[in-house]
Amino acid sequence: MSFWEYLGNRHQQLLTDAYQHASAVFQCMVVATVIGVLIGIVTYGSDWAGSLATTSTSTVLTIPSLAMIGLLIPIVGLGVPPTVIALTLYGLLPIVRNSIVGLRGVDPSLVDAARGIGMSRLMRLLRVELPLAWPPILTGIRVSTQMLMGIAAIAAYASGPGLGNEIFRGIGSLGSKNALNQVLAGTLGIIVLALLFDAAYVLIGRLTIPRGIRV
């Protein structure tokens, strides 16, 4: 069976796996973004706190993804929980780091001007600092998403959702007539999803970042 014939016969299952893969990455990115930006807000004002946050989240990336999921299985079981926890932890570093860099890069004179017109600390953060720090934060989100697209494939090891199931089935049946088609379909599906997500982030950037800041 050719690759195109395989896609035609399995397109429904592949679409389902692709949707689950994209959904898992998207939901984990939302959680990682909220947590990562909050960590950045709390720590950017202190050198040691910022370094601690960056070091802690970078340490997570030194743990192999297969080992991370394997360690989580005895604690939270199989399926979605270990996938969500692992992906969220892996997605933190670029967001935390870029949040800290972006917030520290805000011109202090703008913050002083906002303080001078009576803005509270929260208002300065929401209306001045975060909007100006948004470009690097968005870049961190894009980097995290690209990483998680590939890492999410490992979730199949823990019976998690996504295109990794197609890849693992192909690897588990090496030598069969459709083994290569399964691995290729899962891999290409992840690449296509990564490109679609990245295109969406480019559009979000154009809609949310003023042209002067982009330049």
Automatic annotation (TrEMBL):
Localization per Swiss-Prot or TrEMBL: Cell membrane; Membrane
Membrane topology: Multi-pass membrane protein
Keywords noted in UniProt: Membrane, Transmembrane, Transmembrane helix, Transport
InterPro entries, A to Z: ABC_transp_perm/SBD, MetI-like, MetI-like_sf
Family to which this protein belongs: Belongs to the binding-protein-dependent transport system permease family.
ABC transmembrane type-1 domain: residues covered: 18-201
PROSITE patterns assigned: ABC_TM1
Main location (coarse class): membrane
Lineage top rank: taxon: Bacteria
Protein name: ABC transporter permease
Protein's UniProt keywords contain Chaperone: no
Pfam families reported in the protein's UniProt record: BPD_transp_1
Regions that span the bilayer: 21-46, 66-93, 132-159, 179-204
SUPFAM superfamilies, sorted: MetI-like (SSF161098)
